Amino acid sequence: MAIPVTREQIDYGSPDGSKLHGAAREVITGWTTGRTLTVAESGALVTFDTAAGQAIILPAIATRDVGTWFDFVVVVTGTGTYSVTTDAATTFIGGGVDGSSTTVAEGGDTFVADPAATVAWTADSDVTMRLVGGHFTMIAYSTTTWTIAGTTMGVGTLATPF
To answer: How far apart are CA 123 and CA 80, in angstroms?
Structure first.
C-alpha cells in the first residue's frame, strides 16, 4: 500500500491537541538476506537480529514521500555485517551517530556522514559498532538526502561506520 498524497489528519487544530490510544507500529524483523524497505513501511522499527549480518536498502523518495522515516535497533550483536544503504549512488546520508565503546578507557566518539558523498551506514566489525543496544533513526528530508541520528555501540577504539 502506498502512502496517499492526501494524508489523514489525527489533529484538527484544537488547542487541546489530540490523543492516540492503542497505537503500535510495524516491526520488521527476522530476515536473513537483503531487504528493501518501502515508503508504505515508513515509521517501522527495523531490527538487526541475525548475527550473521543483514542488509537494508532504503526506498526511493518522491516529493510526496519526504518525511518518510525508519528506526533501526541492534538486538543481536553481529558477527557479520549490518548495513543500511540508499537506493542510488545519487542519494546521500547526512547527519551522524554517536558511538559508545564498552571499553571503559576508550569512551566514545561522534561519526559524521557527508551529505554529499555518504551512501551507507556499515557496521562490519565490533569497532564500527554492531553491538547490541545501538539505535538510530533515518529520515528522508529531501528526495535525495536522508539524515541519520542515534547512538551505536562498539568495543575498543571505534571507527566510522560511514
So the answer is: 9
Phi, psi of 100 (to 5 degrees): -110, 130
pTM: 0.86
Q: Are strands 53-57 and 35-36 parallel, antiparallel or unpaired?
A: parallel
Q: What is the mean pLDDT of the chain?
A: 90
Q: How far apart are CA 144 and CA 61, in angstroms?
A: 7
Is 3.40.50 the CATH number for 27-154?
Answer: no
- What residue spans define the domains of the chain? 27-154
Q: Which residues contact 97 (CB under 8 A, 6 or more apart)?
A: 110, 111, 121, 129, 136, 148, 149, 150, 151, 152, 161
Of the candidates 112, 108, 124, which has an alpha carbon nearest to the alpha carbon of residue 48? 124
Name the least confident of 31-40, 76-85, 97-106, 127-136: 97-106
Which among 62, 115, 120 is positioned nearest to 86, based on CA atoms?
A: 120
Single-letter code of the amino acid located at 156: G
SS (H, E, C) 62-118: CHHHCCCEEEEEECCCCCCEEEEECCCCCCEEEEEEEEEECCCCCCEEEEEECCCCC
Residue 5 reports pLDDT greater than 70: no
